[in-house]
Each structure stands twice: as C-alpha cells, then as structure tokens.
Amino acid sequence: MGDLGGKARTLRSQLQQAWPSIRKDLPDDRLWQHEWNKHGICSLRRMNKSDYFQAVIRETGRISLLSILQSVHIVAGSHIAYTKNQFDTAMRNSIGTDIYVSCASLDNTHVLLKELYICLDSTATSYINCPKT
Fold first, then answer.
1. Nearby residues of 36 by Cβ (< 8 Å), 6 or more positions away
2. In which domain of life is the source organism classified (predicted)?
3. Which stretch of DSSP H or E encloses residue 90?
4. Nearest-CA neighbor of 16 among 60, 49, 63, 62?
5. Which residues contact 46 (CB under 8 A, 6 or more apart)?
C-alpha cells in the first residue's frame, strides 16, 4: 500500500473496515497485495491501484455477502452442508449474475468453501458473469 502516496492512510483505514483478512496467517496488507497482484493488475488499463481498492470498498458497501447468504439460510460455521448450486442461486437472485465458487478438500469426503468470486466489468461498475474456471 506504500506506493499510494498520501491517500494510503485513509485507504488503509477504509480497507480495514471493508476487506479485512479473516486468516490469522495472512495480515491485511498481504491479503490486499495478493489480491492486487492476482486480480487488480488486470485492470491497470482502466484504473490504478488506488482506484481498484476504492472500487472494492464501494462494492462491499453495495452488497452484503453475509446478508445475501443468510437470507437463504446459508450460515457460516453451521454444521450443515451446502451445495455449490445453493450459493450460485442465492447470488444470481441477488446480483443477477453467476459467481465462481472455490472449494478446498478437507479429506476424502469433506469440502470446505474457500472463496466466492463476484466479477465486475473492466470499469468495476457492473457485475458480470464470472468465468466457470
């Protein structure tokens, strides 16, 4: 975040509220740098790093992922298994586009939800269908 100049302190504070890391082994700064390197850098033709993170902040204020999932009784930490289709349907009904669901195997019979991708167009103003892979 250091390369954002004087905006860095305000942006960091906003990101800590909007997009904190939920992993103990991944500090906020490393999460944000990873996300910029993996996803944000693709938007360089249209927006700089600061604009990218402002779009993230705007979008987290625009939708509440937890509220969307809770409205269809998908609850984090419960011992209930959910299908990929349940996540897809909940998000499609809410934002009107297809998301990408990423999972990780826990063992031979259990899979853990890893990430839900919500995709935006190159201007970060409209939702678009995420690629299937």
1. 49, 52, 53
2. Eukaryota
3. helix 84-95
4. 60
5. 122, 123, 124
Residue with tokens 């939800």: 113
- Distance in angstroms (rounded) separating the CA atoms of residues 13 and 57: 11
pTM for this prediction: 0.78
Query: Crossing angle of helices 8-18/28-38, nearest 10°?
Result: 90
DSSP string, 18-62: HS----TTS-HHHHHHHHHHHTGGGGTTT--HHHHHHHHHHHHHH
d(CA 65, CA 62) in angstroms, rounded, equals 10
> Per the structure block, which two tokens stand in for 111?
């899979």
